[in-house]
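fwd from M.: "can u put these together and see what the complex looks like"

so here's what she sent:
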Amino acid sequence: MLLHHQFIRMARRHRSRMAIVDRVTNRRLTYGRALVASLLLSERMRSFDEGFVGIMLPNSAPSILAIVATLLSGRIPVLINFSTGAAQNVQYAQQKCGFRTVLTARVLLEKLKCPAMPGMVFMEDVAQSVSFVSKLRGALRASRSAEHLLDRVAGGMPDDTAVMLFTSGSESEPKAVPLSHNNIVANIRGVSQYWPYSEQDVVLANLPYFHVFGLTLNLWLPLYYGMTIVPFANPLDFKGVCEAVREERVVYVGGTPSFLSGYLEASQPGDFSSVRMVLTGGDKCPEMLRQGYRRKHSLELHEGYGTTETSPIISVNVPGASKPGSGGRPLPNVSIRIEDFDTGDDCPVGKTGKILVSGPCVMSGYFDDLEQTSLSLRKGWYDTGDMGWMDEEGYLWLAGRLKRFVKIHGEMVSLVRVEDVLRKCLPEDVPCCVVELPDALRGAQIIAAVTHPVDERAVLQAMAKELTNLQLPRRFVVVQALDRLGSGKVDIRAVTNRVRAVLVGESS
Amino acid sequence: MLLHHMFIHAAKKYEEKLAIIDRTLDRKVTYGKALIATLILSDKFKKYDPGFIGVMLPNSAGSVLTILGALMSGRTPVMINYSTGASQNCEFAQKKCDFQTIITSRALLDKINARKVDGMVFLEDIMKSIGLLDKIKAALTAKLPIDRLLQRVHNGPEDDNAVILFTSGSEKEPKAVQLTHANIWANLEGMSDIFQFYHEDLFLSTLPFFHVFGLTVHLWLPISYGMTFVTYANPLDFKVICSIVREEKCTFLVGTPIFLWGYLQKSERGDFETVRIALTGADKCPESLRQAFIEKHGITLLEGYGTTETSPVISVNTPDFNKPGSVGRTLKNVTVRVENYETGEACATGEIGKILVKGPNVMKGYFDDFEQTSLSIRHGYYDTGDMGYMDEDGYIWHVGRLRRFVKVGGEMVSLIRVEDTLERFLPKGVACCVVEVPDAVRGSRIVAAVTHQIDEKATLKQMAEHLPNIAMPKQFVVLDEFPRMGSGKIDFRKITDLVRDAAHLRK
């Protein structure tokens, strides 16, 4: 199945159902109108270079239409992150994938203070250039039967690329991940076997489409079933998000724990009365946040786990099958293997190892990078670079990125675990982050970064009840703040640099 | 055995023998003197932080003694490349491995116009600070019987790091490779199994010690046999190097093909009369170079294959077992597995696949990078990222880096093969480099960069007789000159960037 074909089928079936409620431009598009608009846009795109089309737009009606229209025109959308250096990301994507055209908007560039660049085409101009005649033609075409329409738009194979996304690349160069129609459809189907979706549901689309979670869960999943999407450009506008949820009677909300904690604070009791499901992931979900939602909104938070390379969901907790703190159970069409870090053998239940994933949602390989592909994807198993373990009931428990492990005197130590224990032993208002500095002799040195001075001896004593001596932080370093990434996660790299700067300052 | 212990054994045995002939500074150091010097340096180094110590020095007596002194003091040398942005590489290494001190020299910084970086200590200053007392103390220590002498220097398990080297990082951030004493030792043993080395051999030591080949083959190998080795800082000084080989009567010559070309051109018949063995690697050895060496000097170039992560030698041709064009048979203590790129199944004889390597020479891992380590080493096999095949006689034929393969319409195409074919039909004096440009529909488009305008149609027609349609270049781009890296290898990344820009404009 092709994603844009499924959209056409839905649009023909539910012509008058609301497809997109764009609160910023105050546009409400039914599926019928969304179909006309995307067909018109796709006509316009036929003048673009063939192949890839870059799309750099915030979540909105135009961005949804642009992604759909790109596929309808037989091109492949390359989604570009504008939150981490727009100009640079545009150039990187163009170079990496070998294309020119980037569909974006003047308003966005102004807001980002990003210069117009070669190859950019603006949504504002594209919309204006659509004449009355072509609108009429578009409307006429849209009124044809779904089957008839399918013949007129771009076809293709289910294994063709449906989107190009970039990994976050916090450590290394971003990798280009092509996901096929099959990949995304498999993930949508896998998720829906666990979650009883209803076609009447309203989905908040606050997660940016240049991230896989946004793209699959906030765009293709609702379009696949004919649901209503409420796009929201700025997930950090906590108040605005809460208003949107209340006024549009949103049923599905998702976000990183840091987003959700913002929504919790900005919301009033009752704001979330229409919500049936809150999904979170990308970072550890604090118990306090879970309790906060229970108290204020009588809602359970459900954690899930996924990666760009797996389109994205690997495992998820769902009502009736949930273990708070775990990453949930693998989707029915996903297999997980836990493999010993050193030997590569299968780990028994309860033992921490590397998480490998196989299934129809796994990408076919990084674009134009056979070398990285051959390292990350072996015999159909994608190596996530995450560590975790499975319990007897098949729930996956995450132990952090492999990057967040260190070897001290030959023993693997999880910094995430050290951090969990530290957090419990600290006063509530002191945020912390555990980092490592490489050490020639021991392999690594564990250091606790805190924002305020603490009674180190007392904290260490409390920590020693749960951790071995090897796992205890060697030092506490007071930093001014804990840097955060756009996603709200703590930026470990930046914090490590802060720690290093403090220690270098001390020694000189 | 720890590598610096091995040196002490050699030094005690060959006390009066010349260890280093430094042709840059015209200094000669006997093994006995070298031992005293390293004992002094080792004492001096003890005042720096324990752990890592950076070393950024050109091949010279000073760099040999510094590396030995560092190990004897219990520090691990981190070798820093000064040919690709010295200051930047220093800072990268300091940050990556979290250390401060870097031993370097003022003369080097002046010569390469590099900025001083915090933590740098100059060898010139250390030398000046050496007093009579230091010398007497070291001389006395050097006289101790070997067992007691060994107790005076650092001791530890063989699995401790003997060095940190950085991968070339032509594509990505350099990775910090940890090689242990046991790793390098194993490779020396593997080499000794198949080559006859004698302590009378004389090594020309020009490959930089910040590259694994220089470090193992141009430093540790001669030391392990108590050979004399001749250091010279600049391997690109072709003319000087030829006269050094002649004057010092070197018996071993090792270089990348591009260096060997230079030596060939600048040498006179008879210059290499004393050379017994000439090894080459790191890049494909052109048949013409091989022939020219035989014609001019009667020397057969022997190709080998290795990587930083394998300390380095994996396989090599020897005078008795040589198949020109192959990279030889594996060392006896090395196992090679060739596996299918997609399925991971072992390839049959003659079938091209990914080259994996197992053995005691395989690194412990990348320093402070579990993720990369776990991707690159699985079940003890290091994934070289190279493609090749093994023939029925056990010779390995290297076909190219995996990144020099592309998938066109689902088929694997070797850009090297396209390049080799193209080369055959180019007019003399025209160089070529085949790269790929990403393509949304086909995955990749093959583009040939050439140094002069050529008759494209005629060339393509000739090529078509040897290549399937999908492997034919779709476009030619003329670049006046090909950018190269410090090692003399063609810089594919830069060429690819240039070609992608050019191909774009014409699209």
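replying to her w this: Chain B is about 35% helix and 25% strand.
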